[in-house]
Each structure stands twice: as structure tokens, then as C-alpha cells.
């Protein structure tokens, strides 16, 4: 994994330093996905920040859509509103529906950080309408999952379940295994919150198997720990101890908290 990341890092730095917008554009999604699933969070933040600085428009130069994409990507842990507003301005100029929708999603996430979940829902509904118009099923799945999660915060559990099940069905239909794992994670968390510990336990077991297959260790860690908590609440103490220890061990090896 370390060697794979080093090869990606070098290719990224090479493309960005030469302002090769086509090469950077091809690398955006794979690099973001790799850093996310393999928990290279700090490294991902540094690489995308480097791109934002190096690809910024020179004097008398129109900002490139790829620069806007670099402003949008990898904003889960550090985002500034003016950064996304600039990206949205460029995306609207280019009539780039996917990028506009992603900006709406980020605005929704920012509202959730402030506890304003009604605004989060409004932004994500706008994002979903846009991505549905593009037919991009990968992004439709992700926005549905995010919107469903926001409904939980408003106590609208039926809306959450409906969207999550739709997203899960779409992910399965398109072979999006990561989307399936994320959808199952949403269902497991929802069952746990409602005290449906047997259902949550079974769903977590599915998440562990699938996430291990696709190489998503942070989800394995979360699911193992959550399944362990379910086992504990169901009186299965020995299994609970094993699962919780496994989850914490993975999390510690990753050097990052369980999501």
C-alpha cells in the first residue's frame, strides 16, 4: 500500500507542477478514493492543497475547471466557504452540473457542522436533483446516503430508510461495492440507534466482510466495534470483547479514530 501511494504521490506532484490539467483531472478521483479508503487523510490534504496553490490562475488567466475540482475535492476535514464559493462560480460559468452539485453537497456538510440540519437537507436536495439530471449513478448514491443521514438528525427515520435503501439498491445494481458497504453501514448505525441490536449486529457482520474485500479498513474498524457493542448489549460478552478489541486494534494501526 505504501508503495502504491508513493507512486501516486509522485505522479500527482509531477502533473501538478507542470500544470498538466488533463493528467490532474484523470488522477483526482483515484487519488481521493485511495487516500480515503486507505486512511491517508493527512497526506491527501497536503496533496490537494499543493494542487490548489499550483493550479491557481496566473494573472490575466481564466481559472480552469480542473482547479475548481481541486478546490472541491478532499474538503472533509478542512474547508473554507470562500474556497467553495469560488469553485461554484467557475462551475456555473462552465455549466458543470456535477461540480455545482458537489459544491451544494459541501455547503450542506458545512451547515451540518453548525447543527443546522434543515439547511443541510435543503442543500443536499438541490444537489440530488442535479446529479440525477446527469445520470451519474456513483454520485447519486453518495448524495442519497448523505441526505438520508441528514434526515436522521431531524428525526425523520422513514425518509432516512427510504433513501438509504434506494442508494443501496442502486449501488448493488451498478456494482459499486464501496457504495454497498456505506449503505449497509448507514442501516447498521440506524438499527443500533433504534435499539435493534440483533439487526445491527448482523448488518455489521456484512459490512466487515465486504469492507475487508474492497480494502476499506476504517469501515472494518467501525463495523467490528459497533458489532461488538451490539454483542455486549445482547449479553454475548466473549464475542463482544473480541470484536471491540479487533476494531480498536485496526483503528490504532491506522492512526486515526474509528469513523
Beta-strand residue fraction: under 5%
Order of helices and strands: HHHHHHHHHHHHH
User: Would you tell me the structural class of the helices and strands?
Assistant: mainly alpha
- Unreliable runs: none
Name the shape in a single word.
globular
* DSSP strand tally: 0
Mean pLDDT: 93
Largest sheet: number of strands, sense, barrel closure: none
- Assign a percent range to the helix content: over 70%
Terminus-to-terminus distance: 21 Å
From the alpha carbons, calculate the radius of gyration and give it in angstroms. 19 Å
Number of helices: 13
Task: Describe the protein in words.
- With 259 residues, this protein is mainly α.
- It is 80% helix and 0% strand.
- It contains 13 helices and no strands.
- Helix 11 runs antiparallel to helix 12 (217-233).
- The chain is globular, with a radius of gyration of 19 Å.
Could you give a short description of this structure?
The chain is an all-alpha fold and 259 residues long.
Entry keywords:
single chain, mainly alpha
Topology diagram in text:
Layout: H1 2-17, H2 21-37, H3 41-54, H4 65-72, H5 81-93, H6 97-113, H7 117-134, H8 137-153, H9 157-174, H10 177-193, H11 197-214, H12 217-233, H13 237-254
Helix pairs in contact: 1-2, 1-3, 2-4, 3-4, 4-5, 5-6, 6-7, 7-8, 8-9, 8-10, 9-10, 10-11, 10-12, 11-12, 12-13
Amino acid at each position: 500500500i505504501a508503495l502504491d501511494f508513493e507512486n501516486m504521490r509522485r505522479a500527482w506532484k509531477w502533473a501538478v507542477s507542470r500544470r498538466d490539467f488533463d493528467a490532474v483531472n484523470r488522477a483526482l478521483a483515484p487519488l481521493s478514493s485511495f487516500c480515503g479508503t486507505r486512511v491517508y487523510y493527512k497526506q491527501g490534504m497536503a496533496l490537494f492543497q499543493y494542487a490548489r496553490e499550483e493550479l491557481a490562475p496566473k494573472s490575466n488567466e481564466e481559472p480552469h475547471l480542473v482547479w475548481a475540482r481541486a478546490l472541491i475535492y478532499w474538503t472533509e476535514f478542512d474547508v473554507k466557504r470562500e474556497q467553495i464559493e469560488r469553485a461554484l462560480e467557475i462551475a456555473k460559468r462552465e455549466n458543470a452540473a456535477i461540480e455545482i452539485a458537489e459544491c451544494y453537497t459541501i455547503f450542506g456538510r458545512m451547515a451540518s457542522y453548525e447543527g443546522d440540519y434543515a439547511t443541510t437537507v435543503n442543500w443536499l436536495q438541490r444537489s440530488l436533483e442535479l446529479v440525477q439530471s446527469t445520470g451519474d449513478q456513483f454520485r447519486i448514491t453518495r448524495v442519497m446516503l448523505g441526505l438520508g443521514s441528514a434526515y436522521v438528525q431531524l428525526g425523520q427515520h422513514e425518509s432516512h430508510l427510504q433513501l438509504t435503501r434506494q442508494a443501496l439498491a442502486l449501488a448493488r445494481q451498478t456494482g459499486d461495492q464501496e457504495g454497498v458497504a456505506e449503505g449497509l453501514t448507514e442501516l447498521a448505525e440506524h438499527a443500533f440507534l433504534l435499539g435493534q441490536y440483533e439487526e445491527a449486529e448482523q448488518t455489521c457482520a456484512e459490512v466487515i466482510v465486504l469492507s475487508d474485500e474492497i480494502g476499506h479498513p476504517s469501515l472494518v474498524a467501525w463495523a467490528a466495534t459497533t458489532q461488538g457493542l451490539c454483542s455486549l448489549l445482547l449479553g454475548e460478552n466473549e464475542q463482544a470483547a473480541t470484536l471491540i478489541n479487533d476494531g480498536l486494534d485496526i483503528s490504532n494501526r491506522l492512526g486515526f479514530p474509528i469513523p
